[in-house]
C-alpha cells in the first residue's frame, strides 16, 4: 500500500493572491497550546535566550575595558587555544558565520592582535595566529572571563553543576542531538 504524499509547508500556505484573515492573538495562542507548543518551555528557544544573555553580559566587561566585540573575543579565545587556524575552522568550531569571523579577523589584524599566514597544505586558505600583542591581550581578558564563569556557576550547587556539565557535554557531542526521522543519522 502506497504511503500518502508528505505534506509540505507550501501545500498548507495559501497563495499570496488569496486574502487570508489575520488570526487574533488569542487564536494564535490557542493554536500553539493545542499543538502542545509553549515557547517559554521550548528548549531551543530557552538555550538561545540563555546563550545570548550570557554572551551579552560577558561582552559588557571586555567591550568596555578592551574595545573588542563578541565575534572578536570568540576569535581571540579560539586562537589562544589553537595555533594556526583558518577562518573556515573557526567558523565550524565556534558556530559563527564565516563573514563575521572574517570581519573580526580583519579588525584584529588591523589592531596587530593576530597575523595571517598562507596555509601550508592549501594555498587557498589563510591561517590565523595570535601575535605577542594578541596573546598579551588574551592574558588580560581570560581572568575576567573565568571570574564571570565562576559567578555564573555560583548560582548552582555542586550537583547541579555536575549535571549541567554532563548535559552540555552530551548536547554538544558528536553527531545530531536528536536522531533524524527514520532512525538514521542525517549525515548518511
Could you characterize the architecture of this molecule?
With 188 residues, the chain is mainly alpha-helical. The protein has 8 helices and 3 strands, in the order H-H-H-H-E-H-H-E-E-H-H. It has helices spanning 9-12, 25-34, 43-66, 70-81, 87-94, 98-110, 132-153, 158-171; strands spanning 85-86, 114-118, 126-130. A hairpin with a 7-residue loop joins strand 2 (114-118) and strand 3. Helix 3 (43-66) crosses helix 7, helix 4 (70-81) crosses helix 6 (98-110) and helix 5 crosses helix 6. It starts with 8 loop residues before the first helix and ends in a 17-residue tail after the last helix. Mean pLDDT is 82; it is low at 179-188.
How would the blueprint of this fold be written?
Blueprint: H1 9-12, H2 25-34, H3 43-66, H4 70-81, E1 85-86, H5 87-94, H6 98-110, E2 114-118, E3 126-130, H7 132-153, H8 158-171
Antiparallel strand pairs: 1-3, 2-3
Helix pairs in contact: 3-7, 4-6, 5-6
